[in-house]
Every structure is written in C-alpha cells, then in structure tokens.
C-alpha cells in the first residue's frame, strides 16, 4: 500500500505513426508543421511565438467552441531526432503562467517527455507527463483526468497522422 501512495501522478501515452522518425520530430520542430496539427480536434491554433530550441518557448492560443485558452511550452532538452523535453503550462494572453481555464485545480506546470523510435518506417511516440511542484489536490486532479487527456491527445494524434500523410505526399 505504501508504494501506491508514494507513486507520482503521471500520464503515459504510446502511439504509432506510419512515418519516418525524422518527419515526426520535425512536426514538433517546425513552426509551419506544428501550426497544422497541434491541439485538440476541432480547435483553432494561433501561434503567438515559436522558438524550438533548448531554453526556447512556444506560446499559443487555442479557440474551441467559443472558449479561448493560452498555453506555453518551455523547452528544456532536445535531442534530435529522439526526444523532446518541455514544461507545459496554461498562461494568460501575455504568456504569464496562470491557473487552468477549467473549473478544477490543475497543476500549474507539467513536465513532458516525448521519445521517438522507428522500426520499419513506423515511428513509436511515447509521451510521458508528470505535474511539477503540484499540491496533493493537483496531483489527484491530474490522475483523475487521465482518461480525458488520453481522449484529447487521440484527437491531436489524429491531426498529426493527417499532417504526416500530407507531408509524405
């Protein structure tokens, strides 16, 4: 029982794409590519800034069904074409970290690690995310929202699938 209480809240999603690893990596690294696929299905993405490098930041706005939200990626470690580590957070329009626009206590920052590997032209993307400096309540919220986050990412990965198919002609 002790191990369960000590276990950190986390989210892990593994998804395969019929595309070379370099193309999947570049979908994150290119402003034009990222703008075509990032975000939940049905949302409109506006990139306010895009600086894909260690120490760089990407600030964006998502509009979905009359609701607007702003978010930020702060890139920590990038190893082309194998992995990307970044902190994600909701922000105000100016890019200052703020609480979630949703009516629950979501962690202010989440550490994300994306790992890519390719076998026979199929790239496996593994996303691992954990709250950073979160309260016990925020950790619980993050855990409770796992199914919802899986569903949201599935829409995003569907858009990435479509982008990769277009990019490969």
Stretches with pLDDT under 50, minimum 5 residues:
1-6
Tell how many strands the DSSP assignment holds. 7
Give the overall shape. Answer: globular
Topology as H/E string? Answer: HEHHEEEEEEHH
Overall residue-averaged pLDDT value: 94
Strand content: 35-45%
If you compute it from the alpha carbons, what radius of gyration comes out, rounded to the nearest whole angstrom? 16 Å
How many structural domains? Answer: 1
Could you say what the CATH architecture is?
2-Layer Sandwich
Helical fraction equals 25-40%
Report the top-level CATH class.
Alpha Beta
Give the CATH topology: Alpha-D-Glucose-1,6-Bisphosphate, Chain A, domain 4
- Count of helices? 5
Measured distance between first and last alpha carbons: 52 Å
In CATH, the homologous superfamily goes by the name START domain
Family: Belongs to the AHA1 family.
Protein name: Activator of Hsp90 ATPase 1 family protein
Pfam family, one: AHSA1
InterPro entries: ASHA1/2-like_C, START-like_dom_sf
How would you characterize the overall build of this protein?
Residues 18-164 form the Activator of Hsp90 ATPase homologue 1/2-like C-terminal domain. Belongs to the AHA1 family. Pfam families: AHSA1 (PF08327). This is Activator of Hsp90 ATPase 1 family protein. This protein has helices at 2-6, 21-29, 31-37, 136-144, 146-167, and strands at residues 11-17, 44-50, 57-64, 67-79, 83-91, 109-119, 122-132. The protein has a seven-stranded antiparallel β-sheet. The protein starts with a helix and ends with a helix. The longest helix has 22 residues, at 146-167. Mean pLDDT is 94; it is low at 1-6. It is 31% helix and 39% strand. The chain has one domain (9-167): START domain (Alpha-D-Glucose-1,6-Bisphosphate, Chain A, domain 4, 2-Layer Sandwich), CATH 3.30.530. With 169 residues, the protein is an alpha+beta fold.
């Amino acid at each position: 029982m002790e191990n369960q209480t000590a276990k950190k809240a986390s989210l892990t999603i593994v998804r395969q794409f019929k595309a070379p690893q370099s193309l999947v990596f570049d979908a994150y690294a290119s402003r034009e590519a990222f703008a075509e696929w990032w975000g939940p299905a049905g949302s409109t993405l506006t990139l306010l800034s895009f600086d894909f490098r260690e120490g760089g930041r990407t600030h964006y706005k998502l509009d979905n069904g009359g609701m607007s939200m702003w978010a930020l990626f702060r890139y920590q470690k990038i190893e082309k074409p194998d992995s990307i580590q970044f902190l994600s957070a909701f922000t105000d329009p100016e890019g200052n970290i703020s609480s979630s626009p949703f009516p629950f206590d979501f962690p202010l920052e989440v550490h994300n690690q994306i790992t890519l590997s390719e076998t026979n032209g199929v790239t496996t993307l593994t996303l691992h995310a954990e709250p950073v400096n979160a309260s016990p309540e925020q950790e619980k919220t993050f855990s409770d929202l796992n199914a919802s986050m899986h569903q949201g990412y599935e829409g995003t990965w569907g858009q990435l699938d479509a982008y990769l198919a277009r990019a490969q002609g």
